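User: Here's a chain of 46 residues. Predict its fold as C-alpha cells.
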Amino acid sequence: MRKHFAVAKEAGATKEELREAIAYGIIAPSGRAKNFALGMLEELGE
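Assistant: Prediction complete.
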C-alpha cells in the first residue's frame, strides 16, 4: 500500500487527492487499510 501512495505522489497527486484516498482508507472495513491510512496522515503533516 505504501508503494501505491508513493507512486500517486510521484504522479503529481495533490494533497487534497491524497487526503481523500486516506479518508477512504480510514472508513474501509479492512484493518490493514485503516492502519496504513493513519500512518500516512503523519507523512502529510496532519
